[in-house]
Write a structure and sequence with these properties.
24% of the residues lie in helices and 22% in strands. By secondary structure, the chain is α+β, with helices and mostly antiparallel strands. Helix 1 packs parallel to helix 4, helix 8 runs parallel beside helix 12 and helix 8 packs parallel to helix 13.
């Protein structure tokens, strides 16, 4: 289904989404803020003297809540961006109310008002040279006569037989394929203001595909493939793209726990390029959409049943003893209190079963069913860190370079920090980072790196940790890592890793079999590498 949607966006690089809102009122809110818009003077898109200063933006959600930070986060040298709503958002109650109806603001990255002044031009460019399809949400607060958005042209701006004008009207919401070369001209006397949203829409995959089929008058996957073949033959290449992105059908709308995802098999997190990404940046966000508040409430009601780690090195100090707790949804012999690794209980041939706790958490179990295969899982646990508590510095796999762990944030209160890739004594080096958790996030974290967690809030922090496979193929996860880390080939990730290891004084990449081949512990070639640690 995702693959077909991408093919529609490759054939016709826009899909109109029929969502109505009070666009005139939203435009007036944005127009009142014209003095605050920021010129993109350092951007290649406005570098010419003729257009400089006419292409502007203003952030409603941005890095550190700074409305001036309207460029991509790497422009500011950020490796672990923290996106927050800006003070400008408070001045736009109608716009924010509309956006809340179509997305989860807390899960979005950047949200920007984009201004093109009269006579302005956004020169031809692509937002993703290495991809065939890159969906982008673009909302027209207005589209004055004389303003044109041209897409699917050549790199020099000349048109081919498939070049199109995006049929924007005031109030239109479009899903655009900004991997295609495109440009915008405003030959009107009015400012053009659109919203660009980097986040998930509250629109199902089935609905999007229906919109695409209806718009393009193609009613099956077979029909769109036939049209695409004709297009590519007409353009010269003769065959459809073969990139991982295109073949897998990756898009930000294919979320964990989607109806499509539930039917898929589950795969262990493995693959040598993926491992290298997790060595460079020790986390990978998987897009999710689930009732994390409902799941949190289910866990919160069971706080009295959580088990402390009284003998565990992670909570042996006086100030934290007994405040780092867990409760098993799946465990050895179905015992909800057996939350530690099997060796702690001197078990050589463990039998994992769902616990009684699972039956008390229907929302949580329904969600987990969409992202993993229970029968292939070892432990699945709620993990509680009480207010004021700390998980001390540790590695879950000292003998490994990469140890992936699936960590799901049911909440992440302000003042709670997960710091990873630090020194063994907890001190930081230049590659130490904070995992950018927000409530509802699903992350794969490399817990072979030394890490620690502090909860300096007055709210219990509850996450879920899955020791098991996920319903994402290794190829999909690799692609997500490439996009997250802005490294689109194995050669580039190796280059960045070599630089990291040289800076750390180690000089060369790890040579373990597990690392070089990207093996999961159940692969016989891994020679029995222990994969999960004590927590």
């Amino acid at each position: 289904m995702i693959s077909e949607l991408l093919k529609h966006l490759d054939l016709v690089p826009f899909i109109q989404i029929p969502i109505k809102f009070k666009h005139k009122e939203c435009f007036e809110e944005a127009r009142q803020l014209l003095p605050f818009f920021i010129e993109n003077t350092s951007d290649i898109l406005t570098s010419s003297k003729a257009n400089r200063g006419k292409w502007k933006s203003l952030a409603l959600r941005a890095i550190d809540g700074d409305f001036c930070k309207t460029s991509y986060y790497t422009h500011y040298g950020e490796k672990n961006p923290c996106f927050q709503m800006t003070e400008i958002a408070e001045r736009c109650p109608k716009i924010i109310a509309f956006l809340q109806s179509i997305t989860d603001l807390q899960k979005c990255e950047a949200i920007r008002l984009m201004l093109l002044e009269p006579g302005g031009v956004v020169p031809v460019h692509t937002d993703a040279r290495h991809l065939d399809v890159l969906p982008s949400v673009n909302i027209a607060l207005n589209m004055p006569a004389g303003c044109d958005f041209i897409i699917d042209c050549r790199a020099d701006g000349t048109r081919n037989r498939f070049t199109r004008k995006v049929p924007f009207k005031d109030g239109d919401l479009m899903l655009l394929n900004v991997a295609k070369y495109h440009y915008v001209i405003n030959n009107s006397s009015l400012p053009r203001i659109h919203i660009m949203l980097s986040g998930l829409l509250k629109v199902s995959l089935e609905e999007l595909l229906t919109f695409a089929r209806t718009q393009n008058k193609l009613h099956s996957r077979k029909e769109v493939i036939q049209k695409l073949r004709k297009k590519y033959i007409g353009l010269g290449p003769g065959s459809l793209p073969q990139s991982v992105n295109y073949k897998l059908g990756f898009t930000m709308f294919e979320k964990a726990n989607s109806p499509t995802r539930k039917k898929l098999p589950a795969y262990w997190v493995q693959g040598k390029e993926l491992f290298r990404h997790l060595d460079l940046v020790p986390y990978l966000r998987i897009p999710g959409d689930f009732d994390y508040q409902g799941c949190y409430q289910e866990a919160f009601k069971l706080l009295s049943r959580f088990v402390a780690h009284p003998n565990n090195v992670l909570s042996e100090t006086v100030e934290s003893q007994g405040r780092w707790k867990s409760l098993a949804l799946r465990a050895l012999d179905g015992d909800e209190q057996k939350t530690l690794y099997q060796t702690h209980y001197h078990v050589k041939e463990p039998q994992y079963e769902m616990t009684k706790v699972a039956s008390l958490c229907p929302k949580t179990i329904t969600f987990l069913h969409g992202i993993t295969d229970f029968d292939k899982c070892e432990r699945i646990r709620f993990m509680l860190l009480e207010p004021g508590a700390r998980i001390h510095v540790h590695s879950d796999a000292r003998n490994l370079d990469v140890c992936p762990s699936v960590n799901i944030a049911l909440n992440m209160p302000e003042g709670c920090r997960f710091v990873v890739d630090c020194n063994e004594d907890g001190s930081h080096h230049k590659f130490t980072c904070e995992v950018p958790f927000v409530a509802g996030d699903i992350m794969i974290v490399n817990i072979a790196k030394f890490h620690y967690v502090v909860n300096n809030s007055n709210v219990p922090r509850i996450h879920i940790i899955i020791n098991g496979p996920v319903k994402f193929t290794p190829e999909e996860l690799m692609l997500r890592a490439r996009i997250q880390n802005q490294l689109d080939s194995e050669k580039k990730i190796i280059h960045e890793l070599v630089k990291k290891y040289k800076a750390m004084g180690e000089g060369a990449l790890p040579q373990s079999l597990q690392y070089k081949m990207g093996l999961h512990k159940d692969d016989p070639r891994a020679n029995g590498f222990p994969y999960f640690g004590i927590v």
